[in-house]
Fold:
Amino acid sequence: MVKSCTRCVLDVKVPEIKFDNSGLCNYCKIYEYLEQQYPLNKNSDKKFREIVEKIKRDGKNKKYDCLIGVSGGADSTYILYVVKKLGLRPLALHLDNGWNSEIAVSNIERATNKLNIDLKTVVLDWEEFKDLQIAFLKASVPDVEIPTDHAIEAILYKVANEEGIKYIFQGHNFRTEGKIPINWGYGDARYIKSVYQLFGKNKRLRNFPLVTPAKLIYYNFIRRIKNVRILYYLGYNKSKIKELLEKELGWVDYGGKHHESTYTKFIQSYILPKKFNIDKRLVHYSAMICSNQITKKEAIKIIKQPPISDIEAKDLKAYVLKKLGLSEDEFEKIMKNRPKSFQDYPTYFQLIKKFIKPIKIVYSLTSPSLPPMLKLMDSSQEKKI
Ligand SMILES: [Zn+2]
Structure:
């Protein structure tokens, strides 16, 4: 019998999992730590109001006081809604990587129009980006979505810098998403460049937005651009929020988590489970069990079902292969390649690991939150319990 957590749905198949004497896993402990750090009570509400007031003061006489990355999903649409209610003046930023579903795009347009929020869209160089995505598939790593995640972070910083905006609102929510194991989604600029050099057509990326550690230092400490995880401060019930967004903004649900992109849908429901035996739903549902949004019994029932039906998978696969220009044979070869990890390629991982303690101290003194790419390396949360 597979050893699994007494509270959530994670088991020994999840990397880096550990259990305490009572059988509780370290992911549940990270959840408990974050719940202690960001409890939903009067004090945290006061703290949040203070942060909002500071953002308003810092943004005085500027066109915008905060920047919000939008995907068309419930989380980022909800941030737009809340921020506007709080009287902030946001700029919405969207990355068009060529894979956005029509529903996602119309969700963004409808929400920004209704809320009267300016929207900026950055379109990636499709030929280069397509080649980078194929390079990651050929590298045989599970972090195939890292190019998109990295590009979003890079353009958020770039646009914040250009517009003189000091606050970037991040959509991560520990109450519904949980912590993704580092082996399921590591990413940095060196990793992306080295995978492209080994498997890309042109060896060197020309237009793809990258954030090097030097740029990160510049943005965070010279330009003083800060990340705020706004959803940590807000009571968050996913189904209630979806209802609210449908009613207030005409938002449309598209099913699975992060399925606003057809590529993400294909990765999470086909490549990851079939090739790497990874089901990211486990982490999301575990967080939702901890935050009492779903029972363990309900989560087990959902997880037992495949993420998508066989017919849907077949159609999705045909669509993705055609768009990437990959033949069935090339794709089957990719699926059969031995799975590798980011540690098989040159990255900044060892460097960041070595300096994560001093980096965290500096950030804790100057910024409300670690940037997402460093946050993943922060394993101290569970030790504090
Ligand atoms: Zn657990």
Summary: The longest strand covers residues 90-96. The mean pLDDT is 91.
